[in-house]
Structures are given as structure tokens and as C-alpha cells.
Design brief:
By secondary structure, the protein is an all-alpha fold. Helix content is 72%, strand content 0%. The chain is globular, with a radius of gyration of 20 Å.
Length: 199
């Protein structure tokens, strides 16, 4: 039995934007909480726990869970699209499936921090310092370039409306990441050393 679940793309995007804005606001509030003088070991530890839990540039916290959940949801939806294309012989099945696998891996990486495992080995090989201290950006950059070149044809073959939504989604992602980064940079140095940095 076929089941149709109507979803408003505009309302869904608005909901995601609201959640992202709330998380950024919570991160800013938690970060500036570090400026408030607090007496007592218990209260200071409680403050650190709140900052760690809400800081958008941290790991193993609410923003990380939210980001990983979105990536996993995208992976599942892309797999559903690939299955539908295969059943209707609509073509581009492999393209959709590869996208699903990529987003699935990104979700796993967001949670398990797989990219950080490459930092030490690559530093030993390339003796990287400065901007390239986080050496995972080198293979990641190569993968991004290859992905863009490989998927240009795929993107141009999509229906016009779908192609436009893909581009809008990428722009939304860029804006969200910028807000994410600005919020992360607002965290005082006095507490930053207790939370490992991420992307």
C-alpha cells in the first residue's frame, strides 16, 4: 500500500532555521556565561558542563547530535530517492546512492570524529604547521574538488526546481556554518581548553 506523507519544504526549512538559530543563541549564552564570576567548585563545574553541552564547536554534545541527525536523515532520504529511481527506472540511481553513502559517512564522522584520526599520521608525514595543523583538511579538500567535478553533470541533469533547491540548500548550509563558526569563536579562552575543537 502506497502512503503519501505531504511535507512543506518551506515550513521544514523554516523549522530547521529556527532550531539552528536557537542552538546558536544557546551557545552564545553559554559561552558568555563563562564571564560571570562564580564562587564554589560545584557551580564552576556546572557552568563548564553547560558550556560543553551547548557549545557549537564542541564534540559529543547537543549541537553535534543535531548535526549528525540531519546528516543521517539526508542519507536515509537519498537512499529512498535512489530506491524510487531504481523501481521506476528513472536513471541516476548510482548518483543518488553515492550521495546517500557520503551523507551517511559524514554523519558517522560527525559523531565518531573519524577525520581527527588522520591528523597525527599526516602531521608526521608532511610536518604540517600553521594553517595545515589540522591536516585532515588536505584530503578533505581533494575529496571536495573531486566531488564537485564528478557531480556537475549529475546536478545539471536534475529537474530545474530540484537543481535550484540543491543550490539553495548549499547556500543555507554555508550561512548556517558561518553562524556556527562565529558562535564558536565567541567562547572565552579561559574555558576553551576543556572542550576539544572540531571543524
Amino acid at each position: 500500500m502506497d502512503v503519501a506523507i505531504p511535507v512543506s519544504a518551506r515550513k521544514f526549512a523554516a523549522a530547521l532555521s529556527l532550531i539552528t538559530a536557537l542552538l546558536v543563541a544557546a551557545s552564545l549564552g553559554a559561552s558568555y556565561l563563562s564571564f560571570v564570576p562564580i564562587e564554589g567548585h560545584f557551580l564552576r563545574e556546572a557552568r563548564e558542563s553547560i558550556v560543553r553541552l551547548l557549545w557549537v564547536d564542541g564534540e559529543g554534545n547537543i549541537p553535534t547530535w543535531y548535526s549528525a541527525s540531519l546528516l543521517l536523515t539526508c542519507s536515509v532520504l537519498l537512499a529512498v530517492i535512489a530506491t524510487a529511481h531504481r523501481q521506476h527506472r528513472a536513471g541516476n540511481v548510482v548518483g543518488w546512492l553515492i550521495l546517500s553513502l557520503i551523507f551517511g559517512f559524514l554523519s558517522l564522522d560527525e559523531t565518531a570524529q573519524l577525520h581527527e584520526l588522520s591528523i597525527a599520521p599526516l602531521q608526521d608525514v608532511f610536518h604540517a604547521t600553521g594553517f595545515l595543523h589540522y591536516t585532515w583538511i588536505v584530503p578533505a579538500g581533494v575529496c571536495v574538488v573531486l566531488f564537485v567535478l564528478g557531480y556537475l553533470k549529475f546536478l545539471m541533469q536534475l529537474p530545474r526546481r530540484t537543481r535550484r533547491l540543491f543550490v539553495l540548500a548549499e547556500r543555507y548550509s554555508w550561512v548556517a556554518r558561518s553562524a556556527w563558526k562565529q558562535s564558536a569563536e565567541s567562547r572565552p579562552h579561559s574555558t576553551a581548553n576543556k572542550t576539544p575543537p572540531t571543524i
